[in-house]
Design brief:
52 strands, 31% strand, 5% helix, Immunoglobulin-like, 4 helices, eight-stranded mixed β-sheet, mainly beta, four-stranded antiparallel β-sheet, single chain
Amino acid sequence: MKEKWFQIWGLSTLCLLVGLGSGCSGCDSEAYVRSTPAMIVTNTDTLTFGPIAVGSSETQNLVILNAGSAPLSIDPLAFEPSEGPFVAELLETSVSAASETIVPTSFFPLTAGEFQVELHLLTNASNTNKKVVLLKGTAFEGTICGPCDNPPESACADEENLLIYNYVGSCVDGSCLYESTLKPCEFGCDQELNVCRTPECTEDADCDDGRFCTGVETCDTEAGVCEFGDTPCGPQAPICDEELDLCMECRTSDDCNDATFCNGAEICSAEFTCMPGAPPCAGGTPICLEATEQCVACTQNNDCDDGSFCNGSEICDENGLCAAGGFPCTEARPFCDENSDQCGECLTDAQCNNGVYCDGEENCNDTLDCEAGQPPCGTLDEVCDEASQSCGECTEDAQCDDGLFCNGSESCSDDLICQAGAAPCDDPTPICDEDTDACWVCSLDTHCDDGLYCNGAETCDDAQMCVDGTSPCSGETPVCLESSDHCVECVVDEDCDIDETCNNYVCEAPLDCDNVGLTWKWSTDRENPDVSRVSCQNCNPYGASHAESRRTTFCNETLPILCIKVDDTPAPDNLSLSEAGKWAFGHIALTPPVQGCSLTSIAVANTICQEQFGQDWRMAEHHDGGWPGWDFWALGHINPDTYFWLHINNQAANCWNSSAP
């Protein structure tokens, strides 16, 4: 920028003004240096903006050069007049010698028109203390709302640009929205005709302005000038759309309004043609009054006739509304028939029903009068029951009585049919005597048989009463089996003598063996939860001597078996650490007493536990709580007063493998 300004002023002149000496070629190398005061120079005296659209802005730079050797001071900028669509920003208030600063200056019009203000630069420059720069701006409306069939005409924005308005949409009031654009005029804009000046031409193509709505331009070859074309749009489609190159009848439905109310509101179709509207009057108000733009139901009574007889004769009231007529039928003949336009006593048979069944069903005839019906029960042996509205054999029980006692009392059912009675004789007097009309317990022994064997044979005595029989079983076979109707010696051990057992209904003496087995006993227990400690109680489990200190027992004695179910149950919190070390991880329970001699193997003992408690149970053994095996803890509460059989799994100390003492 400095080089530009040097060229404008002339290099030698600038050198003399600022005293740059030998730094400037063209000055005498021996020229003396002379100091000069500040001097203001601007790149222009006039800034011209536009034309631009209202609401937009344009910015240009005003350049200030200090052509002196002293600093140039600039006071705040001022405008004359002070109000106007211009703004300038002073970036520096002091400019060094031979330096420049830029003042961005903007034009922001809010209304259309031409604007002009003076920008005053107040400085300490020696050539002028108030530099004036003229600011000019031209603005045009960017958008305009106007009639759709008469768009805004083009106009010269300035000498070089033509302002053209193109349709871009609709405004709130239904008019069309036009947006302005500037078209540069190559040969200038004719301010009188508001068109771009045409060039000299030799053919029509030289004159084409590229716009559809201005028509087809032609060349007057004799005069060598262009002639403007006529609008391409005629009266049937008067609206020209430059963007679509199309003549249209309408852009919006407002363009189609023919100001007639009764033919409805016309609409503009997607093809930009006017379509007739739908008549506004229909339904209950079908008559249209153009003068008042009103829909009414009628103008005379005939307009209100709905063709129906039964709702009376309609009338047209003073408001143009139809009023309903009165009901045409009387109380004596209250039913109205629309098909025959008459009133009558009835329309359907149901309306003639008097509510009485036994006189038949009344009906409605063709003249709408009720006629009596025929009684429903026609045969001589039929009776009519009004309550049940049916015909049948009877209406009361007495009509069904056959005179017999032993077949019960006959009755008349709800459907009027005679029903047989129930036999009058039942337990405890099930035998019926027709001669005496009486019920007895029995007349034969077979009448007393209760079907049971074990209570003996019942008999019928002279008073027709049943007498109980006596048990058929006694002596050596005193026990009766009802299932097989025979007598046996026993069914359970309790039927036998003490120490005997019942086997296949026969009492057998206890087994006799001379073996001995080690037995344990309850030691202590805890609650919450219930756990018990079982032990040998200071015995010596090794050996089979019948010494009390070793807790051995003869196997011909009867004691329970200690059974266990090991299910990994953890030791409860109510055991000490040492006690938990002898935890058996399961539950224990006692079977009913069994003779030791019957325990011929561990399998036999396990089977007894399983039959008593389930498949997961077995005979407990003295190592279930770990080694050495003198005691263990488990869940369960057992009888503390009895000894019990226990499996000694590594010694000959069981009833099935011990020797006599």
